[in-house]
Amino acid sequence: RDDFNRVGVADRQGHLLAYVFTQEGTFVNAWLIEFGFAEAVSLPPNLRYQADLSRLEREAREKSRGLWMRQ
User: Fold this and answer.
1) Helix and strand tally (H, E) in the chain?
2) Could you tell me how far CA 57 lies from the centroid of its own chain?
């Protein structure tokens, strides 16, 4: 996949912003968010998957996964 080459940029703190896919096609960003290991943060120009990633975060919160686990 070529999403990194098109939209890979750094934020104000210098953190690399990119969509990551495995060779098998797994969307790593989505997997991390789905299981509660990351938040969905979308910054221009990286908006292609904003709706899907936001939905996955909402579902992870509802299911109390990872970061959203209720103590």
Assistant:
1) 3, 2
2) 9
What is the distance between the alpha carbons of residues 52 and 15, in angstroms, rounded to a whole number? Answer: 22
**pTM exceeds 0.85, yes or no:** no
Quickly list H helices, 8-49: 28-34
Cβ-based neighbour number of residue 1 at 10 Å: 12
Cα–Cα–Cα angle for 65, 31, 46, rounded to 5 degrees:
115
Alpha carbons 44 and 46: distance in angstroms, whole number: 5
Characterize the bridge pairing of strands 16-17 and 9-10.
antiparallel
Reply yes or no on whether the pLDDT at 59 is more than 90.
Answer: yes
